[in-house]
Amino acid sequence: MNVRRSAAALAASAVLCVGAAPAALADTAPPSPSAPPVVPSGLFGKADPTYDGVWRQSIALLAQRTAGEKPAAQAVAWLTGQQCASGGFASFRADASKACDTTTVFDTNATAIAVQALKALGGQDAAVKKGVDWLKSVQNEDGGWAYVPGSPSEGSSTSIVTSALAVAGEKPAEVRSKAGKSAYDGLLAFQLGCSAEPAADRGAFGYQAADGKLPANADATAAAVLAGLGKGAVVDPATTDTPAAALPCPAGAADPAGAAQGAAGYLAEALKKDGHLTAVTPGADQPTADTGNTADAVIALAAAGHRQAAAGALEWLKNNSADWSKGNPAALGTLVLVAHATGADPKAFGSTDLVGALNATGPAPQAADTEPKKVESDGDGGSGGQNVWWIIGAGAAAGMGIGILLSGRRKKNQL
């Protein structure tokens, strides 16, 4: 998990909802953008929160809890105030005093990460239940979820929602659509199996099929590892270390945990070349370092028990993530979660005190506990029309397999 869930996944879903090809829109000028909303008091970060307000707030609160901080009441109240009466969340509501209505664009990713944060904070059982019930109500017939309800399922959203359900105490195998498909059925449909080509992609998860093919996608893969293992964004350090392994072929019966380990094997192999993941950004012809997905991959490998496989990427993040994360609460919070998952010190992460830097982006925490919190999981293991044109452009890129790279959830500063 990391900084994402704003631009790219929403973009892809928006493309699917609108059903318009970029070529058909080429001769139509986009409308002039309106002024960005004022960043409200209580919210972490100073950047425009339109696409990632709830996401970055939730990640920041989760990170503070794992670092032993007690989040400010004002920050918690901002998050709970974003929840609609139905239980769902939009990416951001500038006027939370106004009731959600038919014009509200609900966001499964924002809802899922908010459920995790509220569960970790404690004392928010009613809000957690409402969020879970809403997520169940927008499950697609195939068992999966889309970023925006009503769109076709995709791998990243299905994974993030499945993780939230597990953290909230639900059993994903028993969360079924009207057609009888479980959350795990929806999840496993996005794994590239033993017939995938190139063979190096076997075990990876895809975001969504394009032209009849399901490209491997690092964001979806890292999120799927957590979902298959019944874990959320907060991963406690493993006490043992096992080698990561490729997806066994021929594959046996569909098994979420086994699928997660195969996905972890794909990530471990992908990290070997450069010590970090890379991606080609829109308009570029050469790949560049993908810091956000590298952070996700480290958390995923730690969750799967592969500390050594994550060690090189962890060191790369310590030495190369400062500029990427500066002033960005979602990025800083994600790195705190990386440190937590790997047993690293978040207050001395390379040259950065991640906790201090995160705290500086929002309301000061109430107090510091003497020991970092272990966030328990009850799981059993097992904005408006003026933004549509920008969304469509980003969505086209997301459909080509670089989904999270454009996302403000993780990499807002790369947009």
How many E-type strands? 4
What is the strand arrangement across the widest sheet? 1-4
Specify Rg, calculated over alpha carbons: 19 Å
Assembly of the depicted chains: single chain
Shape: globular
Detailed description of the structure:
By secondary structure, this protein is mainly alpha-helical. The chain has a domain at 7-233 and 358-414. The chain has helices at 7-18, 53-66, 73-81, 108-121, 125-137, 155-167, 183-188, 218-228, 256-272, 291-303, 307-320, 322-325, 329-342, 354-359, 388-402, 408-411, and strands at residues 69-70, 278-279, 288-289, 367-368. The protein has a two-stranded antiparallel ribbon. Strand 2 (278-279) and strand 3 form a beta hairpin. The model is unreliable at 5-31 and 375-415 (pLDDT under 50).
In short:
The chain has helices at 7-18, 53-66, 73-81, 108-121, 125-137, 155-167, 183-188, 218-228, 256-272, 291-303, 307-320, 322-325, 329-342, 354-359, 388-402, 408-411; strands at 69-70, 278-279, 288-289, 367-368. The chain has 415 residues and is mainly α. It is globular, with a radius of gyration of 19 Å.
